[in-house]
């Protein structure tokens, strides 16, 4: 098997380097242009979600590239996600996503968060009264399994699920998740969660692999860290390349978002870097900084779960 892919439990391979398409401005034309650039550079893994507002633009760009003969559909790996207000009907939600994207199927469909919102809620940071009191997702997962049976997707998985929530899901799942997508980088290494996922043949996919610089919840702490910088200097690489290669060295795919062509090329060159045991040991000794998404959301809202920080407090 190629070194730039991982094999999922369903048999499909997932490219280790993925392009994120979240765009706060929901800029359609910029997204379409960036995806075309990414395909030409060699990206084959694309990540979106209903709440990102980029499904239509990504689908348009992929459709154009396929029609131009630039790439074949079977060579592209596309992930989207079930938004929390659609837990009552994953089949209809995925059917709408496919219609929006102009695709016949997704390669990967994830439950975006292990929480339920009332139908119709479409804000990424919900209000307290918009949460459903029923926090169980057994019926949701049954709907996800049905999506798989119907051929609407090739694999199903979860996102932002802690170790405890993975175990809870495995207790009733007929089909185990192929993927768990979580925030993961050298300053939030997800060691416990990675062990749990590995033991249950669940691939970990890391979003914000550079620490989310430029996002409201993100930080420059990863790429500005002196240890990361020193390892980069040693390998004649950039700190971003070191952070990305670290994630891939742990067997994870990494979802990095940049619409800048030169940075896309820089990020792709992370595949060529070889970190040695000393590099990995230095990174594993870094003090973790779990402030990113969790604390940002706690400062924005409360919920029936005491706080959204509970998602992290049971050790995601």
What does this structure look like?
- The protein is of the alpha/beta class and 316 residues long.
- The chain has a single domain, classed as Alpha-Beta Barrel (TIM Barrel), CATH 3.20.20.100.
- The protein is built from 12 helices and 10 strands.
- It has helices at residues 28-41, 55-68, 90-101, 138-149, 163-172, 191-199, 226-234, 239-249, 261-268, 277-284, 292-298, 310-313, and strands at residues 5-7, 13-15, 17-20, 45-47, 77-82, 108-111, 156-159, 179-183, 203-207, 253-256.
- The strands form 2 sheets. Strands 3-4-5-6-7-8-9-10 form an 8-stranded parallel barrel, surrounded by 4 helices.
- β8, α6 (191-199) and β9 (203-207) form a beta-alpha-beta unit.
- α1 (28-41) packs across α2 and α1 (28-41) runs parallel beside α9.
- The longest helix has 14 residues, at 28-41.
- It is globular and about 50 Å long.
CATH superfamily: NADP-dependent oxidoreductase domain
The CATH C-level name is Alpha Beta
The rounded distance between the terminal residues' Cα atoms is 30 Å
**From the 3D coordinates, which CATH architecture would you assign?**
Alpha-Beta Barrel
Low-pLDDT stretches are 291-310
- Helical fraction equals 25-40%
Q: Write the CATH fold name.
A: TIM Barrel
Mean pLDDT level: 91
List the helices and strands and how they pair.
Layout: E1 5-7, E2 13-15, E3 17-20, H1 28-41, E4 45-47, H2 55-68, E5 77-82, H3 90-101, E6 108-111, H4 138-149, E7 156-159, H5 163-172, E8 179-183, H6 191-199, E9 203-207, H7 226-234, H8 239-249, E10 253-256, H9 261-268, H10 277-284, H11 292-298, H12 310-313
Parallel strand pairs: 3-4, 3-10, 4-5, 5-6, 6-7, 7-8, 8-9, 9-10
Antiparallel strand pairs: 1-2
């Amino acid at each position: 098997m190629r070194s730039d892919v991982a094999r999922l439990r369903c048999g499909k391979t997932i490219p280790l380097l993925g392009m994120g398409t979240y765009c706060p401005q929901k800029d359609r034309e910029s997204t379409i242009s960036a995806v075309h650039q990414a395909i030409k550079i060699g990206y084959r893994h694309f990540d979106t979600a209903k709440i990102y507002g980029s499904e239509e633009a990504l689908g348009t760009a992929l459709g154009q590239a396929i029609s131009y003969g630039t790439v074949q559909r079977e060579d592209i790996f596309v992930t989207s996600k079930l938004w929390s207000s659609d837990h009552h009907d994953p089949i209809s939600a995925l059917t709408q996503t496919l219609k929006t994207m102009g695709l016949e199927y997704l390669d990967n469909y994830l439950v975006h968060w292990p929480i339920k919102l009332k139908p119709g809620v479409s804000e990424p940071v919900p209000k307290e009264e918009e949460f459903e009191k029923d926090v169980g997702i057994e019926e949701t997962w049954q709907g996800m399994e049905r999506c798989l049976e119907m051929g609407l997707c090739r694999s199903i998985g979860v996102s932002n699920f802690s170790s405890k929530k993975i175990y809870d899901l495995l207790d009733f799942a007929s089909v185990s998740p192929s993927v768990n997508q979580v925030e993961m980088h050298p300053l939030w290494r997800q060691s416990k969660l990675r062990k749990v996922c590995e033991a249950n043949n669940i691939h970990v996919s890391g979003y914000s692999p550079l620490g989310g610089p430029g996002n409201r919840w993100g930080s420059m702490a990863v790429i500005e860290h002196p240890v990361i910088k020193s390892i980069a200097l040693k390998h004649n690489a950039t700190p971003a390349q070191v952070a990305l290669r670290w994630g891939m060295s742990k067997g994870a795919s990494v979802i990095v978002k940049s619409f800048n062509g030169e940075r896309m090329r820089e990020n792709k060159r992370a595949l060529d870097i070889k970190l040695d045991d000393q590099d990995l040991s230095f990174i594993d000794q870094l003090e973790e900084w779990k402030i990113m998404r969790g604390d940002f959301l706690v400062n924005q809202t409360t919920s029936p779960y005491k706080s959204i920080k509970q998602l992290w407090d049971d050790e995601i």
